[in-house]
Amino acid sequence: MAASGLSAEVDVGQVVLPGDVLLLPAAPNADGERLRLGPSSAPRGRLLCGPGLRRCAAGLLVTKCGLLRHRPPAGAGTGGGAYWVDSQQKRYVPVKGDPIIGIVTAKAGDIFKVDVGGSEQASLSYLAFEGATKRNRPNVQVGDLVYGQFIVANKDMEPEMVCIDSSGRANGMGIIGHEGLLFKVSLGLIRKLLAPNCEIIQELGQLYPFEIVLGMNGRIWDPREVISTPQDWIHQQSGLLHLFVALSPNLGTGAFL
Amino acid sequence: MAAGFKTVEPLEYYRRFLKENCRPDGRELGEFRATTVNIGSITTADGSALVKLGNTTVICGIKAEFAAPPVDATNKGYIVPDVDLPPLCSARFRPGPPGEEAQAVSQFIADVIENSQIIMKEDLCIVNGKLAWVLYCDIICLDYDGNILDACTFALLAALNNVQLPAVAINEETGLAEVNLKQKTPLNIRKYPVATSFAIFDDTLLIVDPTAEEEDLATGTVTIVTDEEGRLCSVHKPGGSPLTGAKLQDCITRAITRHKEVKQLMDKI
Amino acid sequence: MGSEPEPGCALRPFAVEQGLLSRPDGSAAFVQGDTSVLAGVYGPAEVRSSRESPERAALDVLLRPKVGLPGVLERSREQMVRRACEAALLGELHPRSSVTLVLQVVSDAGSLLSCCLNAACLALLDAGLPLRSLFCGVTCALAPDGAVALDPSARQEKEARAVLTFAFESTEKRLLLSTTRGACSAKEVEYVRDVHGTSV
C-alpha cells in the first residue's frame, strides 16, 4: 500500500483499492490521464466524481475496488472531465435516470409498489403511463413487468419511477409483455451490453433477429413466443444463454456473472 | 435552550464541551466517576459485592457448590461467570434470552478470569478426581450508565475477595462430603485485575469512563485490563475507530494509574 | 527490527477465492494454512423496522462454528467482527438498509479470528459495498520463552503464554481491533504490534 509521502502515479485503467487517495494533477491539461498518489496542490477545473469515488480533503477517496476510468471534458475546457471506478456488483442501488425493469408487487391506492432489486421497493404512480388519466387507468396487475426510469433515487428517500419521459411519451417504457423470460445477471454485464458497438449484440444480431430489454438493475427480459413443446422451449432458452457464456471471454476484464 | 440543542444535535453539543477539555458532567477527559463498593450485602451468597461507578450499579453474587472435576483436569475446579443485563437497568435491553451485549460482556469476564489467573483452579479442588468447588459468579446490572466492563470486573474482584468457603471433610464410611459451616476460609486471590475503559471520539480523542450517552456518541471503545505487576491481562478493542500506537500507549499508562487507585480502594475493605 | 523477517515471523501460506457463491451479493473464502473460513455478504437489502437506522446501514454478522450451535464465544466474536466492519464500511451511503455478513468456519487450525476478519473484508469488497479502507487481521502467539510466532497453528496457540489478535486498516496502518488471551507486559504488546504492522 502506498503511504502518504510516496508519489506513485496511477494510470487510468489500473486497479485501485478502497482507501487509496487519488490526487488530481496540478496542471489540468498536461497528464490528464495520470493521477498521483501523494501530496499535491488543490485541483483546478470542474471535475465530475463518479461511482466508486468520494471527495475528501486531499483529493478523491476510492471506495470500491475496480479499474479507474476517465472521460476527458466534452468541450475545450480547462481540465476536469469525469473519473470513476469500474467495479463489479450484483446488488443494484437506485440511481436517478437509470432505465430499469421492475416487477409489480402490490397496489396501494394510487401507486404501485415495484421490486427493482434494491434495498427498498420503488413507487410508481398510475398516472405515470402514457395516456393515463384518472378515468383511464392503466391495466397493471401484480406480477407484471414494467420498464421505466427513476425520477427520484437518493439514499434518503424511497425511489420513485415513471414510465413516461419528460415530454409525456412512453418511448418504449411501460408494461412489457406478459410472456417471456427474465434473466438476472451482474450489473457489469448490462453496462457492457449497453456500451456502443457491443460485440455480443452485433454477433447475436447476425445469427438471428431478436429483441431484448435491458434494465440497469441487472435484469434482461427476453420476449419469446409461447413454445408448443417443452423441448423447443429448453432449446431456445439454452441457446441464448449459451451464446452469452460462449462470448463472455471476449468481454475482457468485466466478468460475466 | 441547551436541552433543545442537545436533543437535536447531540454530537455537536458534546463537541463544544470537548473543545474546552471537559465533559457535560464536569469531569476532565481522564477523570473517573466516583467509585464506591459495598461487600457482603447478600447474606445468602457465599460472597457478594455491590459496585457503583457514578450511576452504573452492578452487583455480583457468588455461590459455591460441589461438582466432579473435569475429566481432562482432575485437580481443577470451575469458575462460571454470567453477566445479566436485565430490562431493569436500561430501556435498550428487552426481556428474553441474553442479547449480544450481555453475551459479549460474559465472554469478556470469562477471558479476564482466564487471562489474569485471579484464582488458580487447582485451589478449588477438594479431592483429586472426586470433588471440587464450582463458583457460580452471577453479575447483574441494576443501573446501566456506561462503562459496564469496568464495573463488572471490579464487582467480580471484590466479591471473590469476600468469598468464604466452608471446610469440607469426606466421611470415610459413607464417602459423602460433610460441610462444616463454622470453619470458613477465604479464597486465595493471586492477582488483582482492574479494567479501564476508554471511548474514542472523532477518531482522535480518548475519554475515560464513558457514560451511556457518551458511549452512544463514541465511534469506538478500548478496554485495558492490568494487574498489580503492570502486566496486561487484556487489550480489548472490539473494532471501532482505528488508533495509532502512541494513543494505545497512553491508554495503557492511564490504565496502570487507575489500577493503583482501585487497589487503594480495595485495601480499605 | 531488521529488514529480513525473523524465523517464526513468517505467515502460513494463504489463499483467497472471491465470488465463489452464486446467491450472496458478495462472497469470499480465505484459507490460512489449515484454517479456512467462508464468508457471504447480502446487502444493501431490506431491513426490519426494529433495526432500521436513518443514518447508516445496519450491519449484522453471523458466525457459525464448524460443529455445534453458536454459543457465547461466537457472539463475542460476532460483535468484534461487526464493529471492525462498521468502522471500515461507509454505512452512511445506505441508510435504512441492512447488510448481513455470514461467516462459516470450514476448518479451524489456529488463528481463527484473524481468518474471519480477512474473509469478511474480502467478501465486503466482492459485494461492491463502499469501504473507507481495507483491513486485515493477524494473530500472534508469545511462547513461554518470549519468542514471537505469527499466524500460529492450533498447537502453538495452546502452548503459548499469550495469544494476541490484531486488525489493522490499510490506509495508515492504525489499529482497528485488538483482543488478547493470556497476560503479557506492555512492552511485549508494543513490540508485537510493530511486528504485525510491518508484516501487514
TrEMBL record, chain A:
Localization: Cytoplasm; Nucleus, Nucleolus
Provide this UniProt record's keywords sorted from A to Z.
Cytoplasm, Exosome, Nucleus, RNA-binding, rRNA processing
Residue ranges of domain K Homology in the record:
180-221
Gene3D superfamilies given in the database record: 2.40.50.100, K Homology domain, type 1, Nucleic acid-binding proteins
Highest taxon in the source lineage: Eukaryota
CDD domains, from UniProt?
KH-I_Rrp40, S1_Rrp40
Q: What is this protein called?
A: Ribosomal RNA-processing protein 40
From TrEMBL, chain B:
InterPro entries for this protein: ExoRNase_PH_dom1, ExoRNase_PH_dom2, ExoRNase_PH_dom2_sf, Exosome_comp_Rrp42_subfam, PNPase/RNase_PH_dom_sf, Ribosomal_Su5_D2-typ_SF, Rrp43
Q: So which domain of life are we looking at?
A: Eukaryota
Primary localization class, coarse: cytoplasm
Please provide, alphabetically and separated by semicolons, the GO molecular function terms listed in this UniProt record: mRNA 3'-UTR AU-rich region binding
The species is Alligator mississippiensis
Q: Which GO terms describe its biological process?
A: exonucleolytic trimming to generate mature 3'-end of 5.8S rRNA from tricistronic rRNA transcript (SSU-rRNA, 5.8S rRNA, LSU-rRNA); nuclear mRNA surveillance; nuclear polyadenylation-dependent rRNA catabolic process; rRNA catabolic process; TRAMP-dependent tRNA surveillance pathway; U1 snRNA 3'-end processing; U4 snRNA 3'-end processing; U5 snRNA 3'-end processing
CC per GO annotation: cytoplasmic exosome (RNase complex); nuclear exosome (RNase complex); nucleolus
A UniProt-annotated Pfam family: RNase_PH_C
Alphabetically ordered keywords of this record:
Acetylation, Cytoplasm, Exosome, Nucleus, RNA-binding, rRNA processing
Q: What is this protein called?
A: Exosome complex component RRP43
List the CDD domains.
RNase_PH_RRP43
UniProt gene name: EXOSC8
Tell me where it resides.
Cytoplasm; Nucleus, Nucleolus
Per the record, the similarity remark reads: Belongs to the RNase PH family.
Ranges for domain Exoribonuclease phosphorolytic come to 31-166, 192-256
Automatic annotation (TrEMBL), chain C:
| UniProt subcellular location | Nucleus
Superkingdom of the organism of origin: Eukaryota
Q: Which GO terms describe its cellular component?
A: cytoplasmic exosome (RNase complex); nuclear exosome (RNase complex); nucleolus
Keyword rRNA processing on this protein? yes
Span-the-membrane segments of this chain are: none
Give residue ranges for domain Exoribonuclease phosphorolytic: 11-130, 134-187
Q: Which UniProt keywords apply?
A: Exosome, Nucleus, rRNA processing
**Classification via InterPro entries:** ExoRNase_PH_dom1 (IPR001247), ExoRNase_PH_dom2 (IPR015847), ExoRNase_PH_dom2_sf (IPR036345), PNPase/RNase_PH_dom_sf (IPR027408), Ribosomal_Su5_D2-typ_SF (IPR020568), RNase_PH (IPR050080)
One GO biological process term is: rRNA processing
Primary localisation category: nucleus
**What's an example of a GO molecular-function annotation for this chain?**
RNA binding
Give the family from UniProt: Belongs to the RNase PH family.
Name by which UniProt lists this protein: Exosome complex component RRP46
